[in-house]
């Protein structure tokens, strides 16, 4: 958990803090304190938390059990926790910690107490003078006998670093140090003024993320041609404008940036920049001599959890650099960076890990580093698909619509992704189609059925499935329509001379609504008119009593529901009165293959002539009766009374409009009409025959009237024959076949590479993976072959082919994998090839020893031992650089040298030359091999300087304020900090006044005087603190004062007449 106050570390004990409760936190933390020995020291803190936290104070080194030296108190009015140390001593200087803890967490903050030791006069010990022999008197250190590095660092350092530099060099007399430093500053400024017009924005050396160290400053030179020199520990260091050199300079306008590349332990030291022999900048480069006792380890974290990296150092380091995927990491909401109290254990916490946090994380200390992988894995929880009960109940309600309308179903859900969503209608899965629209997301899915028909009525089911389970939701779709016509056959219950009683079957589909009525019409056979009987109740039964004996009747029956009236059902003819039964048959004679029977005609003929008898027989012991005489033939089909028609001719211009792996689209032109030969076509049939079959299959059961058709459900890459048959009332015409068979695939496309810029040469570092991706288009799916130098690739090479892409991958490539790789993309239409050269190489190794030989005056022959990589890399060559004793910069004199020697010309006598030879290949440059120095050193005369004797100076002076007090305006209850700088010798005595009343002994004000910098701190400003503040400095030579006015924001300050008079008097 992150505090709103910087520097506060909070540890939360529970995952979720209850509402209204909170873990401890600091709204005001103790501040670091530097105080003189014997003064009153105290730390104050304001802490929040519910329940109220327990507060505890500790120190790093030492005991706090002495209640007289350590007073712990709490002010309930100000709600401040205080640690007071009256009459503070040097041994109490330490790092103090304040702990606040309750049941939900703990908060910790640290503050440092620095105690300045007071110089005391030691009482004279006369016993020391009683000795048997005289000792050599110990010489006191004279002023100025300090390492010159000390002054050079102070001259370029910030004031805040003075104390640290003094402690490092053992200087404790700050007053003397400041006095001496001011003298040196005046001297160096006078020297710099000869060559430098402006010098500022000094930034000391620090290690960058690139592994180099840099320091910089801004400078304007009076003479742009003035020479700039770089020294390390007093020794001149050559530098270059080439950023790849060990020491380099980059100048942008007035900004100078010096870089030290390829850091090692030998690069530590004092770096100085001189202009024409005058020092302008000094910086001390210290490389921490530390090792990783425990390095970073690979961390695997579950998504949405925290990952912790931890390392242990061999020496205390207050802060190290953390890198994440080559980017510096800082404390914030995403990263928590902490260090142990002993500064040995450093920890990085990556909060709320996500997949994007995968990568390498590193800890960097100086030139040492270690790294490890962070692997974020998906969090697996039991999370099956689930639905809200209310949404499920609403979804289960039937959806009732009319035919032609649209129906929509929608349901929300939750569960671990991915969730497979399927919609079903009556058990058959629904897919996106013309009238079916399915939308899916991670939280909901919807189904929309457009232009619904009666056949769409049924169960609609949504099925959700993931790795943890399956759930289903069921609803009903009811599409209302008019009913279908009632069904026969008609069952005659009674047919007499006075009535016809019959019944029929209800409609097969009532359209979703019950039958309310039946509408009947009657026609007497032989007449053309229909008599309306009217509506009868919804029972499929009717008794007609208005009949004539012996007449035949035909009925029209329609079913009526709330949605409409059905089509008509026409009954067979029914005769009013059936004949009575004939007499019992008598056997006249019987033979082995014939039985003769007689009977008497029925006495009741029903008013009509008897046209025949039906005779049935049954074997003895059997209950099955079978008809003896042959039944009547079935009636013929309906025939329209018209002139005969001729079948149509063949369709014209039959062709393939489009094709895919599963469909074929055809188009044609209707056949011509020729009177008496072929009539107009009324429809078409499309017939298909696979190549392996001999029978033709019709693709459409009913004739289509359009001149195009799409055949679906083809087998990919299968061979088919197709033809079209025109038809009309005269029958089917002759089929028209395609000229050739076709294959179920898209239109053929010759292989073609789609990338505009394809690399024909690729350099890969040995050990890395080599990857070549080729995009192409081709139809049908082509065969892809990869070759290396004309031969098939080995098993080391992985080839991945997808639709339109082929990728070649060489994991952990070696030099032997170098070669020309060729891809061949081939199908039935043609083929295409492309070649690329892959060169596997590594950073070149430097050449062997370099030798120099002068064969011709004015020239030098540079020769060297070949690099070990020369035999393994045919593109390897060498580069030669030269430096002489005058220019002191490296210059490239030869490049792309493919042998092992080079002749340098224009060699000047009296100069010293050094040569470097680099190995170069496709990866870059190697480390150089340097030659011995060539030339004769000139003898230089001894340089002497006569320094005049220094004159003694009197530095005594009355107090003067170099920086006076400033006017302050502060909001109530905020801190107010006043400071000024005073100079004088002997050291002035400082007294603070508020409204002319001394406040030196007032514990509400924290007063300090460090090296002439006087400060006054008011921790919580209140109305009582309003007024005039004055500081008075006195010594034996005089007295001086500085005053200011503190205004509490929002309070009008009125000066009393005495104060106004005193100010006028001072002016």
UniProtKB/TrEMBL annotation:
Keywords: Coiled coil, Immunoglobulin domain, Repeat. Residues 486-580, 647-748, 846-940 form the Fibronectin type-III domain. It comes from Astyanax mexicanus. Residues 171-201 form a coiled coil. GO terms for biological process: sarcomere organization. Residues 24-114, 751-841, 959-1047 form the Ig-like domain. Pfam families: fn3, I-set, THB. GO terms for cellular component: M band. This is Immunoglobulin like and fibronectin type III domain containing 1, tandem duplicate 3. CDD domains: FN3. InterPro entries: FN3_dom, FN3_sf, Ig-like_dom, Ig-like_dom_sf, Ig-like_fold, Ig_I-set, Ig_sub, Ig_sub2.
């Amino acid at each position: 958990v992150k505090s709103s106050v910087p520097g506060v570390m909070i540890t939360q004990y529970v995952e979720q803090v209850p509402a209204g409760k909170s873990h401890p936190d600091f709204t005001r933390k103790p501040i670091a304190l530097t105080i003189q020995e014997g003064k009153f020291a105290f730390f104050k803190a304001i802490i929040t938390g519910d329940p109220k936290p327990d507060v505890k104070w500790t120190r790093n080194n030492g005991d706090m059990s002495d209640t007289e030296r350590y007073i712990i108190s709490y002010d309930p009015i100000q709600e401040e926790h205080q640690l007071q140390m009256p009459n503070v001593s040097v041994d109490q200087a330490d790092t103090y910690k304040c702990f606040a803890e309750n049941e939900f967490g703990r908060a910790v903050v640290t503050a440092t107490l620095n105690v300045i030791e007071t110089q005391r006069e030691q009482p004279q010990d006369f016993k020391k003078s009683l000795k048997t022999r005289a000792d050599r008197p110990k010489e006191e250190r004279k002023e100025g006998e300090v390492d010159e590095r000390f002054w050079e660092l102070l001259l370029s350092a910030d004031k805040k670093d003075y104390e640290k530099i003094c402690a490092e060099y053992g200087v404790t007399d700050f007053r003397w140090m400041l006095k001496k430093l001011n003298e040196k500053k005046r001297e160096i400024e006078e020297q710099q003024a000869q060559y430098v017009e402006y010098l500022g924005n000094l930034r000391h050396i620090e290690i960058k993320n690139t592994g180099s160290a840099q320091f910089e400053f801004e400078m304007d030179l009076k003479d742009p041609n003035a020479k700039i020199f770089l020294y390390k520990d007093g020794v001149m260091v050559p530098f270059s404008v080439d950023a790849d050199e060990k020491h380099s300079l980059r100048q942008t306008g007035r900004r100078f940036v010096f870089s030290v590349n390829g850091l090692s332990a030998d690069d530590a030291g004092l770096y100085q920049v001189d202009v024409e022999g005058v020092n302008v900048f000094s910086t001390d480069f210290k490389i921490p001599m530390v090792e990783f006792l425990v390095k970073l380890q690979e961390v695997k974290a579950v998504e949405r959890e925290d990952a912790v990296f931890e390392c242990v150092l061999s020496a205390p380091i207050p802060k190290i650099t953390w890198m994440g995927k080559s980017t510096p990491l800082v404390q914030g909401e995403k990263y928590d960076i902490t260090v142990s109290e002993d500064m040995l254990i450093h920890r990085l916490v990556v909060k709320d890990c996500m997949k994007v946090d995968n990568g390498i994380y590193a800890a960097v200390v100086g030139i040492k580093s270690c790294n490890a992988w962070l692997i974020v894995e998906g969090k697996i929880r039991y999370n099956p698909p689930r639905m809200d009960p209310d949404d499920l109940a609403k979804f289960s309600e039937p959806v009732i619509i009319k035919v032609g309308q649209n129906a929509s179903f929608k349901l929300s859900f939750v569960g671990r992704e991915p969730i497979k969503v399927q919609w079903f209608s009556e058990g058959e899965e629904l897919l996106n189609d013309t009238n079916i629209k399915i939308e899916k997301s991670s939280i909901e899915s919807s189904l929309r059925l457009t232009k619904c028909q009666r056949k769409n009525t049924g169960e609609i089911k949504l099925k959700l499935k993931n790795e943890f389970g399956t759930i289903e939701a069921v609803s009903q779709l009811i599409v209302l329509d008019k009913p279908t016509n009632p069904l026969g056959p008609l069952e005659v219950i009674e047919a007499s001379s006075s009535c016809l009683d019959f019944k029929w079957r209800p409609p097969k589909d009532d359209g979703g609504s019950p039958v309310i009525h039946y509408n009947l019409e009657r026609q007497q056979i032989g007449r053309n008119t229909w008599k309306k009987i009217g509506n009868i109740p919804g029972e499929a039964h009717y008794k007609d009593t208005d009949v004539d004996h012996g007449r035949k009747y035909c009925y029209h029956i329609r079913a009526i529901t709330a949605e409409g009236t059905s089509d008509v059902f026409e009954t067979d003819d029914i005769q009013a009165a059936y004949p009575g039964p004939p007499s019992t048959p008598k056997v006249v004679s019987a033979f082995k293959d014939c039985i003769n029977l007689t009977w008497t005609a029925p006495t009741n003929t029903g008013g009509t002539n008897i046209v025949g008898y039906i005779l049935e027989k049954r074997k003895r012991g059997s209950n099955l009766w079978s008809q003896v005489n042959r039944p009547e033939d079935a009636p013929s089909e309906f025939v329209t009374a018209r002139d005969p028609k001729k079948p149509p001719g063949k369709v014209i211009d039959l062709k393939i409009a489009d094709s895919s792996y599963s469909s074929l689209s055809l188009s044609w032109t209707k056949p011509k009409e020729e009177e008496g030969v072929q009539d107009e076509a009324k429809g078409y049939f499309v017939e298909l025959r696979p190549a392996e079959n001999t029978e033709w299959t019709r693709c459409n059961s009913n004739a289509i009237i359009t001149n195009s058709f799409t055949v679906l459900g083809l087998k990919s890459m299968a061979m088919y024959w197709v033809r079209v048959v025109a038809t009309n009332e005269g029958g089917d015409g002759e089929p028209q076949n395609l000229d050739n068979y076709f294959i179920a695939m898209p239109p053929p496309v010759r292989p073609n590479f789609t990338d505009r810029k394809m690399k024909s040469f690729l350099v890969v570092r040995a050990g890395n993976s080599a990857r070549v991706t080729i995009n192409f288009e081709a139809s049908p799916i082509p065969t892809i072959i990869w070759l290396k130098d004309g031969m098939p690739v080995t098993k080391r090479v992985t080839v991945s082919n997808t639709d339109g892409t082929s990728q070649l991958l060489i994991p952990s490539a070696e030099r032997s994998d170098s070669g020309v790789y060729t891809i061949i993309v081939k199908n039935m239409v043609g083929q295409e090839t492309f070649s690329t050269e892959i060169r596997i190489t590594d950073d070149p190794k430097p050449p062997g020893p370099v030798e120099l030989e002068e064969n011709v005056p004015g020239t030098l022959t540079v020769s060297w031992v070949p690099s070990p990589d020369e035999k393994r890399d045919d593109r390897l060559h060498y580069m030669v650089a030269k430096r002489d004793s005058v220019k002191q910069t490296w210059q490239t004199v030869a490049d792309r040298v493919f042998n092992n020697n080079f002749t340098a010309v224009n060699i000047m006598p009296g100069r010293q030359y050094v040569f470097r030879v680099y190995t170069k290949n496709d990866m870059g440059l190697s480390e150089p091999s340097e030659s011995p120095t060539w030339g004769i050193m000139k003898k230089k005369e001894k340089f002497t300087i006569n320094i005049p004797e220094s004159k003694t100076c009197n530095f005594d002076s009355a107090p003067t304020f170099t920086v006076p007090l400033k006017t302050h305006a502060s909001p109530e209850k905020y801190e107010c900090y006043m400071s000024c700088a005073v100079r004088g010798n002997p050291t002035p005595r400082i007294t603070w006044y508020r409204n002319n009343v001394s406040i030196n002994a007032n514990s509400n004000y924290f007063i300090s005087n460090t090296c002439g910098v006087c400060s006054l701190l008011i921790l919580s400003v209140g109305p009582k603190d309003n007024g005039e503040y004055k500081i008075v400095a006195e010594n034996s030579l005089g007295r001086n004062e500085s005053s200011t006015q503190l205004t509490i924001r929002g309070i009008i300050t009125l000066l009393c007449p005495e104060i106004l008079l005193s100010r006028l008097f001072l002016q």
